[in-house]
Amino acid sequence: MLIVIIIIYNYCNKKMKNRSLAGNCGIAIFVIALVTVALAFGTPSWIVSDSRIRGNQLDRLGLWSHCFRSLPDPLDQYQRRFFVGCRWVYDPFTTGYDRIRGYLLPGFMIATQFFFTLCLLGVLISAILVLVFFLCCGPDQSRFVLIIKSIGYIMLGSGISGCIAVIVFACFANTEGWMPGHPNNYFGWSFGLGVVGSVACLVTASLFLTETNIQNKKRNRLKESQARFEMEHESKA
C-alpha cells in the first residue's frame, strides 16, 4: 500500500511540475465548481420557507422539484384540491399537477433551468478534459495547449450561463405574486451553491486561460532556444 502511495505521489508531483501555479489552482477551483454546480442543479432548496411558521403553504423549491405543505390548486376557485409533499415538476402521475405546470414554471423559471443546465453540461464536458489534462497530457504533446484553451473557454461559457441563471432567479423568483407566503420565503442553500458554482466557473476559466498563455510562452521560448542551438551547430560545422 505504501509503495502504491509513493508511486501516485511521484506521478502527481511530476505532472504538477509540467503545469504552472495557474494550472494547479485551476484544477482545484474546478473541483469546487463541479461539486457546487452539480449539487445546486439537483437539490430542491433554491427557495425555502421559514420552518418556524406553521401556516406556510410552501416548504422548499428547486429547479426540478417542489415541496409543498398544502398548496391549493390555483386554478380551482373552490379550492377542493391541495398538493402536499415533494414532486418532480414534470410529474405525470399526480392528478391535476400537469394543469398547474404553467403556474409552477413561469418564463423566468424556464430561463433559469435552461441556462443552469447549460452551465452543468459545460462543467461536465470540462471534467473530461480536466482529467485528460491532469492524467494524460504533457507539454511535449501537440494538443496540450489546445486542451487547456478548450477548458478555459468552455468554463467561461458555463460561468456566464450560470450567472445569467442565478441573476434571473434572484430578480424574479422570491417576489410577491408567485409562490405563496412570500414574506416568509428566502433564498436557500441550493441557490447559494449555484452562485458559488457560477463564480467558481469564471475563476476556473480565467486560471486556465492564464495557463494557456503561460504554456504558449514556454513553447515559444523552447522553439527559440532550439533555433539558436541549430544555428550555432551549423555555424560550427
UniProtKB/TrEMBL annotation:
Keywords: Membrane, Transmembrane, Transmembrane helix. The keyword Zinc does not apply. InterPro entries: PMP22/EMP/MP20/Claudin. It holds the Pfam family Claudin_2. It is found in: Membrane. It is a multi-pass membrane protein. GO terms for cellular component: membrane; septate junction. The chain crosses the membrane at residues 21-41, 114-138, 150-175, 187-209. GO terms for biological process: regulation of tube size, open tracheal system; septate junction assembly. This is Sinuous. It comes from Parnassius mnemosyne (clouded apollo).
